[in-house]
Design goal:
alpha+beta; 3 domains; five-stranded mixed sheet; 12 helices; 7 strands
Length: about 350
């Protein structure tokens, strides 16, 4: 879903990237290639923005720089979280192995003792010797039972620990799919949600539309009021979008001031209506500056709408919505345009 290029296109990308990677000091590793691949294809806007700043500033991309880019923009899970979880799992496995080995040792000794007791019982034993034998057998049986109980207790504790580690891993992965500024999905999370929606054929057949939204003149907003206010604008618009969609819809910040909304079971008329509701609510809204407490209004967005056609995928829908968004921008901004419609 994410890497949608065919064999010929990916071959061209490979030839291009080998030249670019060779000009940098980082080793030819899979993470290095993944970073350059997502940068070159433009499928990861946040990575493209960060990497462009580094390259434009003349910074050489060594292994350390690539590792940071990969961890922040490409990896599905935070590297530090992965390392800690992996260490915890290794400790847990070592602990289980230790208890299992000790129990196996005691079981082996118990089996040997039983063999000795069996051989002894073949002899003619008087009552006192038989009593002593039975007493020893009872003691060994109690020890073995205690060892098995301890193992069972440790295994249960280990099972609970495994469940805890699993939840921590799922939480770490979930955080990697969320845009930290707005709390909505990031591009990776959006693509995963889209994959789930596209897999529901019955739902897709009822209609599927995608909205691409972009804040008008966002650079001017940042230049005039500062980046902190710009971040507040982004958060406010994310909240406004969320307030206008249903539970099964997916909203994401694709990067910078660009958002996307996937609307399953929605025809084009419904998608256009949702887009207009979002656009008009943002146009009417005001956001308070943090420094002067001044209420700033007049912020607008442009929207492009694309419509699912049989056989299309999320990449095609995004591309079509982006083209419709361009029409809205060229038409004066603060408006909604539908791909393929005048």
């Amino acid at each position: 879903m994410k890497y949608a290029q065919d064999r010929n296109a990916s071959g061209e990308i490979l030839r291009l990237l080998i030249q670019k990677m060779a000009a940098q000091p980082a080793a030819f590793t899979p993470p290095n290639y993944a970073v350059w691949y997502e940068f070159a294809t433009g499928i990861n806007p946040a990575l493209t923005e960060a990497m462009s700043k580094l390259l434009d500033g003349g910074q050489k991309l060594d292994d350390e720089a690539i590792d940071k880019l990969y961890a922040k923009f490409v990896s599905e899970c935070n590297v530090d979280d992965e390392r800690i979880l992996r260490e915890d799992v290794q400790k847990l496995l070592g602990k289980i192995a230790g208890f299992t080995a000790e129990t196996n040792k005691q079981a082996s000794e118990f089996g040997n003792n039983l063999q000795v007791y069996g051989d002894t019982l073949k002899q003619n034993l008087d009552a006192s010797k038989l009593g002593a034998l039975i007493s020893n057998m009872a003691d060994d049986t109690d020890k073995m039972r205690g060892s098995m109980n301890n193992l069972q207790t440790e295994l249960e504790a280990s099972r609970q620990q495994v469940e805890k580690l699993h939840k921590e891993l799922e939480s770490a992965r979930g955080e990697a799919l969320i845009d930290p500024l707005t709390g909505i999905l990031n591009r990776r999370g959006f693509e995963g949600k889209a994959q789930q929606i596209f897999a529901d054929k019955a739902s897709v057949e009822k209609g599927l539309c995608l909205l691409m939204l972009d804040i008008d003149h966002f650079k001017k907003i940042n230049d005039t009021y500062g980046h902190l206010f710009g971040d507040k604008v982004i958060c406010g618009i994310a909240a406004a979008i969320k307030s206008k969609i249903k539970g099964q819809d997916a909203v994401a910040r694709l990067g910078g001031e660009e958002f996307a909304v996937l609307l399953p079971e929605t025809a084009v008329a419904g998608a256009h209506a949702v887009a207009e509701q979002i656009r008009s609510s943002i146009e009417r809204g005001k956001i308070r500056r943090l420094d002067t407490q001044e209420q700033i209004g007049g912020i607008t967005i442009s929207i492009g709408v694309s419509i699912y056609a049989a056989g299309s995928n999320i990449t095609e829908l995004l591309d079509q919505a982006d083209k419709a968004l361009y029409v809205s921008k060229e038409g004066g901004r603060n408006r909604v345009s539908v791909y393929g419609q005048s």
